[in-house]
Amino acid sequence: MDERHERLRGAAQAGNNDALYAVIREGAYLLDGIDQIPFFDTPLHIAAAAGHTDFAMEIMNLKPSLALKLNHDGFSPIQLALQNGRSLVSW
Question: Where along the sequence do coiled-coil regions lie (predicted)?
Fold first, then answer.
């Protein structure tokens, strides 16, 4: 995984939308590349599990298909949010 992926992961863990866009400005197709990986903890998975709803919504606006992607354990971002006691109301 390259440095941009790590920075994107950090942005998702922190729920930092400014950092998200800083990384995207460096590589406009970064989310497309992530979407091509069959099973992956996407930035959306990470943000959903951490309860960063604003960040999660921003990712879903940028790349809606990530909302359906499963991680290595077979969970979608919404399932991770529910597992961690997050509300679907703000989704």
Answer: none
pTM over 0.90: no
Average pLDDT over residues 62-75: 96
List C-alpha distances in Å: 47 to 8, 27, 82, 89: 11, 20, 12, 16
Q: Which CATH architecture has domain 3-83?
A: Alpha Horseshoe (1.25)
Q: How far is CA 75 from the centre of its chain?
A: 13
User: For residues 47 and 56, what is the distance between their CA atoms, to the nearest angstrom?
Assistant: 6
The pLDDT, as a whole number, for residue 85 is: 75
Q: Where exactly are the structural domains of the chain?
A: 3-83
